[in-house]
């Protein structure tokens, strides 16, 4: 059991999940536009299961995908965070940074802002050497966020194991940033010590 890490940014609060977050998160996951680069929308039951999993990860290790709120209004806008992919991928074992925001909050730099805070935790409190992110090749919006974060395309495109042959979203790209590159770009590690003692990520 570790105390949860809950970073703030100039515009965002990254928090552990609370009951008040469930309804707006379920609505976000049911939005076809938000989920257009995922295999399908999610039901409320699936959303509850997802939040339960992330909440258990927070209780065990102190980090996972955070519920994101705007500081100016307290409004829930989606998730941003760090997780270990459950499926075997070219980067396995690895830690990924990811995000999903409600459409009314797109185009404001919020995903980038929150993901930078997540990287500060990854390279500071968790002591990671590198972090990855991946998405469907056609997902240009998320790839643009990865590039703004200073991540680079590894060129190791792969077929997502959960998607069948011929699926429009099956082919994925893999991005990566090392702690060294992040520091050289001006990254400031988040304080605290909650080292991640999982298997080390392979060098790429």
From TrEMBL:
A single Pfam family it belongs to is Acetyltransf_3
**Domain of life assignment:** Bacteria
Every copy of the N-acetyltransferase domain together lies at 12-170
Record-level Gene Ontology MF annotations = acyltransferase activity, transferring groups other than amino-acyl groups
Fetch the PANTHER family from UniProt. GNAT FAMILY, PUTATIVE (AFU_ORTHOLOGUE AFUA_3G00765)-RELATED-RELATED, N-ACETYLTRANSFERASE DOMAIN-CONTAINING PROTEIN
User: What is the designated name of this protein?
Assistant: GNAT family N-acetyltransferase
Give the species this sequence originates from.
Answer: Ideonella alba
